[in-house]
Structure formats: C-alpha cells, structure tokens
Amino acid sequence: MSTNDDIGPVDFVMTDFQAVLDADVDGLLDAPEKAQKITSSDRLEQAFLEIVEFYRVHDRVPSSSTREIAERKLGARLDGFLARDERAAAVRHLDEFGLLEAPETPASIDELLEGDDLDDLLGEDGGILDVSDLPVVKRPESPDSVAQRIKSEDFELYEPLFKAKHAELADGTFQLMPFTGLDLIREGVFFVLNGVMCFVAEVGEDVDLVVGGKPRQKQRLKVVFENGTESAMYKQSLMTRMYEAQGQVLARTGHDVGEILDGDVESGHIYVLQSLSTDPLVANMADLHKIGFSTTSVEQRIKNAEKSPTYLMAPVRVLADYRLYNIKASWLEHLLHRVFAEVRLDLTQVDRKGRNYDPSEWFVVPLPTINKAIAMIMSGEITQFVYDRAQQALVERSSHGG
User: Fold this and answer.
1) I need a labelling partner for 199 at 20 to 30 A (CA). Which of 24, 61, 283, 331 fits?
2) Beta bridge partners of 199
3) Of 81, 58, 161, whose CA–CA distance to 379 is shortest?
4) Between residues 63 and 113, the one the model is more confident about
5) Would the pLDDT of 324 be above 60?
C-alpha cells in the first residue's frame, strides 16, 4: 500500500507535465538557445549602423566638432571609418547612403572656399568664432594667477647685466645648461625661457598660502627679462614654466649645473646718487651725480650722508643700484671714473672738523650716459668710446678730436 502510494503521485506529476508540454504550441517552455558570442565584426557593424540611422533621421552626416556630445561621438566614429580602409571595407555593405565615399578633391582654391562646410564655419552668425555658448572658465583669483609681465621701470639697472652675459656666452666664459630643478632658482641666476634671457633679481620672503585646501609656502620673485619686462611670479611658477618650455640656465663654464650658484657670486654694488643739498652751488648744478662702489647695501652705505663730505654734507637720493656678479665692482668703479674724468666735480668741501676735503666721485654727466657707459663696459665696447663734454655723450674715439 505504501509502495503504491509512493509511485502513484510520481506517475501523476509526470503525466501532467507531459500534457503541459504537449499543449505548448507557442514554444514558451522551449529551452532557450545559447546566446552567440558577439564578435568584433558585429560591434563594428553595430557602430556603423548607428551612424547610418543618424543620417536617416537628420539627412546629414554627424559632425565631429559639434558641441552636442552624442553627435560628436558619432562624427568622430565616422572619421575613424574614413581614416582606416580596412574598417570601411568591413561595413561598406551597410553603407546605403554612401557615407564612406571619399569627397571629390576641389579643383581650385575658390571651389574649396565656396564649400558649405567653410561657409558654416566662417559665417557671421556663428561657427568656430562664436563662443557665446561656451561655458565661462573660472580661474582662481590667486596672486599667482595674475603675475603677468609688466614694463620694468628700472630696467636700466639690469640691462648691463644682460649684455655682459651675452658677451660671456659668446666668449665661452658661460654656457647654457638644462634646467634641473627648483634649487637653481635663486637671486642672481640667469635663465633662458622661451628664447628670452631672464634674471632673478630678487627672492621674497616665504608667504603662507592655501592652495587646493592645503597650506603651502611660496616665495615671490622679481624676474627681469631682457626685453624690458618683469614679472612677480612665484618661485614654483617659474619652475613650472622652465620645465614646460625646456628652459636653460646660464652656468660658468667648467661648473656642473648643481654648482651654478658657486659660479654666480655677487661682488658688490655700483650706485649713482643725486645730492639733495640746499647749497645753491650744488643745488643749481644740473646732471651732478656721484658714482660709487659698495660691498654692502647702498642704503647702509649712505645712512649718514649728511655728516660726510664724501656726500657733500647732505642727504642723497639713489638713482641707480647695479648689483654685480662675477666682476670686481671696485674695478668697474675705477673704470667709470676714468671714462668721466674730464667732467669730475672740482669742489672743495669742509668737514665738521674744519678740514678741507675734495670729493672725487662726483661727476657732471647725465644719468642716461652713465647707464650707457656701464652697459658698454660690461659688453667690452667702452674701449672704442670716450666721453665728449660738449655733446654730453659717449662718442667713438675715431670721431673725437682728442
């Protein structure tokens, strides 16, 4: 009995299931066929059919330069088919609109310019020159982002240094070497950036900034360019630009780039002063300037000018301060004094103790002429020139009467 009870239900289930299968005239219970693997050829055809469908709907080929992302994607895809013959051949049987046919070559420039594509691009009502729909690029208002080049107001102080460096490059004293890192960016070093020589005139103190949400220390520079401009960019910004432009650094020949700072050493200051004396004899003398030399800062040197006969017992104004590198500043001062010896001030001063003093560093010569003389000394040209008192200018020896 138990056996019949066990078998009975089994036979009943199998019989009902077979009946269901027999009644499935629509094949709903048929076992699904195993999906076929999609091949690269299938994907290629599907990709091209999407382009065909776009043409069917819009009656034009998709553009690869439009701002519409979906269309630009199809346009770039079509460009890819046109650029590779094997891809085009694989889907040519699907090209019902002739999308893969190469356009005819224009017979002339006029025919090229008359093409619809160029009309669309150069039309007054839009095209590539229309940027009205482009998103506004928001740039950070950090000080670094506005460190643009401006005209250097005291470029005459640095022009002789550039001329000297060009002369030293020409004679082999200095050479150009690849820029290797941030450690080279220090005061007194020359670089070539995008074909223009520049000079790090000053390195400021560290300032604390928040960059990208993180505190950073940066140093503001004064970078002077030989074209008469300057920039207050940060040290890191100059490094980035040097790397991007594959800039170079000027190094004394025979020194490794890591020793460049040993090759460029500040050797002193040549300065030009104007007297602020109220003595009519001095105050009414046009173009009276003191040309001096100092190993310390000029400000320190003239601290007590009003008490010294060297400064005509009066305060002075600094008109020029040439910081010199790799040159004996005292030698340059002596040479300048020789150049302008003819117009040396002939005046005797009495110091606080009643002693007579003849200041020897004051000359009656225009400031631009002094600046020019310094530049010519640094470049080596000065040997061919002398100072002409009548013309108040440096003239060639051959044309000078003396």
Assistant:
1) 331
2) 190, 224
3) 161
4) 63
5) yes
217 vs 83 pLDDT, higher one: 83
Task: Determine the structural domain holding residue 363 and report its residue range.
Answer: 266-399
Burial class (CB in 10 A: 0-12, 13-18, 19+), 178: exposed
Q: Give the helix ranges, DSSP H, for 352-397.
A: 367-379
Q: Kindly state the percentage of the chain with pLDDT values over 70.
A: 68
The one-letter code for the residue type at 159 is E
Beta bridge partners of 43: none
Same domain, 393 and 278: yes
Q: Is residue 351 part of a domain?
A: yes
Select from 230, 263, 296 the last residue of a domain: 263
Query: Domain count of the chain?
Result: 3
| CA dist list (Å): 282 to 190, 306, 347, 353, 355 | 40, 14, 10, 21, 19
Are 336 and 269 in contact by the 8 Å Cβ rule? The answer is no
Angle made by CA atoms 157, 161, 166, in degrees to the nearest 5: 145
With cut-offs at 50, 70 and 90, classify the pLDDT of residue 121: very low
274 or 154: whose pLDDT is higher?
Answer: 274
The whole-number average pLDDT for the span 218-242 is 89
pLDDT in tens, 258-313: 555 544 556 678 889 999 999 888 899 999 999 988 877 888 889 888 888 888 88
Handedness of CA 310, 316, 322, 325 (dihedral sign): positive
Of 87, 82, 75, which Cα lies nearest the Cα of 43? 87
Residue 31 phi, psi (nearest 5): -65, 130
Which residue, 263, 291, 324, sits at the end of a domain? 263
Same domain, yes or no, for 229 and 277?
no
What is the rounded distance in angstroms from the CA atom of residue 236 to the CA atom of residue 242?
Answer: 10
- Rounded CA-CA distance 328/71 in Å is 70
Q: Is residue 24 part of a domain?
A: no
Q: Model's pTM, two decimal places?
A: 0.40
Residue 16, domain member (yes or no):
no
